[in-house]
Amino acid sequence: MASTTPTLTMLLTVTIDPSNTAAFLSALKPIYNSISSTPECTFVQLLQSPAQPGVFKIVETWNATMEWLQTVQLKKPYYAELAEKVQPLYTKPQEIEVWEGMPGGEWVGVSKEFYFP
Fold this sequence. Notes:
Number of strands: 4
Domain ABM: 8-98
Organism: Lophium mytilinum
Largest sheet: 4 strands, antiparallel
CATH topology: Alpha-Beta Plaits
Protein name: ABM domain-containing protein
């Protein structure tokens, strides 16, 4: 059933030395899997910049309120574990943006055939 409430999308930008990419991805993978298996998480994707090696963006979309994200999700211990492993790899501070999706399904599109063949 389609949600009629707005979603929240967090865009996290991480910049590391490109030589640390394998270490970053290794540290991120178990947390990425935990995030994607959270029922309130409707979408998560890791992006990398083709123009700026070492710059990654994590896109997380949540069917949740900002209060829930701050008081429940972001308090989960795996975020602290991730920070401990990846913050030493940062070459600049992490940037976080939060965006609210338009309500309803009119402004959402996903190619199921592409992502889920």
